Amino acid sequence: MFSITVRDHVMVAHSFRGEVFGPAQRLHGATFVVDARFKRLDLDGDDIVVDIGLATRELHAVLADLNYRNLDEVPAFTGVNTSTEFLAKYIADQLVDRVHEGALGEGARGLAGIEVTLHESHVAWASYERSL
Amino acid sequence: MFSITVRDHVMVAHSFRGEVFGPAQRLHGATFVVDARFKRLDLDGDDIVVDIGLATRELHAVLADLNYRNLDEVPAFTGVNTSTEFLAKYIADQLVDRVHEGALGEGARGLAGIEVTLHESHVAWASYERSL
Amino acid sequence: MFSITVRDHVMVAHSFRGEVFGPAQRLHGATFVVDARFKRLDLDGDDIVVDIGLATRELHAVLADLNYRNLDEVPAFTGVNTSTEFLAKYIADQLVDRVHEGALGEGARGLAGIEVTLHESHVAWASYERSL
Amino acid sequence: MFSITVRDHVMVAHSFRGEVFGPAQRLHGATFVVDARFKRLDLDGDDIVVDIGLATRELHAVLADLNYRNLDEVPAFTGVNTSTEFLAKYIADQLVDRVHEGALGEGARGLAGIEVTLHESHVAWASYERSL
Amino acid sequence: MFSITVRDHVMVAHSFRGEVFGPAQRLHGATFVVDARFKRLDLDGDDIVVDIGLATRELHAVLADLNYRNLDEVPAFTGVNTSTEFLAKYIADQLVDRVHEGALGEGARGLAGIEVTLHESHVAWASYERSL
Amino acid sequence: MFSITVRDHVMVAHSFRGEVFGPAQRLHGATFVVDARFKRLDLDGDDIVVDIGLATRELHAVLADLNYRNLDEVPAFTGVNTSTEFLAKYIADQLVDRVHEGALGEGARGLAGIEVTLHESHVAWASYERSL
Predict the structure, then answer these.
(1) Do F and D have ≥3 inter-chain CB pairs under 8 A?
(2) pLDDT score, position D33
(3) What's the rounded Cα separation, in Å, for the pair B5 and B50?
(4) pLDDT 10s digits, E109-125
(5) What is the DSSP code (8-state) at residue C56?
(6) What's the domain count of chain E?
(7) Does F3 contact chain E (CB < 8 Å)?
(8) Chain E: residue nearest B123 by CA?
């Protein structure tokens, strides 16, 4: 199995509901350093997994919709806690949609899976992995 | 598959037995930067994998039993080489015990697996992964 | 010149005022990974710069006052932009106050300077350095 | 499953053929920071996955054949793009050959798999994983 | 003293002349992860050292002139070894020129100094620091 | 001012004397990731600060004398606490001796200073800086 990974980041505000979150129930924020990993069983005709330029552009586009926002006010997130692991899935699903739309190139339709990891600090991160 | 990972560290002395270890047969030491990764198929009712506060606390507790010790004198390690990979399994198993005891919360009983990685330097690390 | 540095982090929400900030004028957030460096011309009688346990505890205490907060609502920050560089100075000044109060031990009164660096992402950080 | 990973690096020149590569069709270069991960179901009689000294030596030997070279002139790479993901497979395959030759010790014949990751910058990396 | 630092990278080919360079006299390449640090005695009216958006844009522009190139063919570098430390000075000087041209904003004219660090691998980096 | 930095590591056991050290008074150990920074006002005739190959070799040689040892038994350290900051000075001084002996090449006699940083974990490091 091959993979390539590209990194970007996003800076957001949010709050959590539920006693388990303690002081994180207050409005606070985070920088998420985001790694998007694209997996493929074989290389394509250009000897790559996916066009790294397109992968970088599309990850940036997905994050741009969230960047410098208060996630508590984003309609797509009504009624859920925008935990690091939840956001990893959200971003992975958005990337899969873009693959299906052809935004990562025709070759990307041969991808086997996507894994997204969000680093919330130097001591904590979360990930979500799915097939295509 | 979802996961969250928390990081801590431990500083220990130890020595190895066996020609394969060369100068590491002498009493020396290491800082192990320890990453504990908790995996789960679905998020729980709070939209998380596990309470990150409890995960951090329990990892710290497991490491506290080893921290600032000479592992050659720890009864649990009699007769084995406390290699980085061996310690990764030891710490993973201790965390699983704590999950079963409920120390990581009731939701943690739904965890699918745990992976522990120990970084012994900037150029070497080891890991152990198991299901729950 | 000797120094020791300890690292911790803080997660906050805030917004900026001024066209120069573009979309960061919206309420958003950040994780700041914070490095506090303590400088001293000579080592003390214990052969150290400062008690690393106290340095870690006091940095954590300074950050606890900010952690999981919306900085726009913190009275101490009224009328200023809580930029990364501004916060580096704020935290450094708080640490200096604690040194003068004796919270870092008697030996800490011999410190020559403090430098605080805040990492806001993998591609941007800011610092402030001052003498004691 | 256990694993150990060792890190080294290599500095090469190369160019790519294909419109997808844009300006990278020009002769340029890269530092690849290379992580070689060795997997094994159980520890051997010395309580390790593989002799870390031999793993380090053999990874260095594989990279020495590429280091400070223009990959466009290496016969083994004629007609292919030496993309980061392609090189990850090349290095993994070379390591597997060395395992089979006994260069990583007799115990290494019990390895389950090898994964090689090449970091081409702080924001992009690629990997290849195979069984033995 | 305040500072902010932004990070980007560049991928180049080059060769060195001189026995001291050993195998690096051959055409090879490098990824340089580049940190540009901007220093200022006091914050400006917006409570910042310099507009981080402009700093990022101008560093990227300086690197774009070098990116995906064989430095042996760049006229500006005729007759010199494009060592990591030499390139750190070249990039710092280019940034200072842009500050003087106003490309980093009017406030940037108050900068005290610039330091550029180039990471050539996980085990080696070089820097150049100058006043404005 | 120019500088180049090279990184290596060392794994040692030791213990501390003094109440300030708490549990670190017990025999324990550490991995120190060691950065040696060499400073010079101008580049030499080869357009470098110092031969990076010799710098790497000499740092490795200095660390080899400490590696896989119990520092409590090293005669040079009798009666002192081998704190991270103390060891930073010890290594810097050893490197300066080697510069004076010519081990880093004739050009190294033009060095202005050396700074050594020891990382004892992901959250703590110490350094010592001196002129030549």
Answers:
(1) no
(2) 98
(3) 10
(4) 999 999 999 999 999 99
(5) H
(6) 1
(7) yes
(8) E122
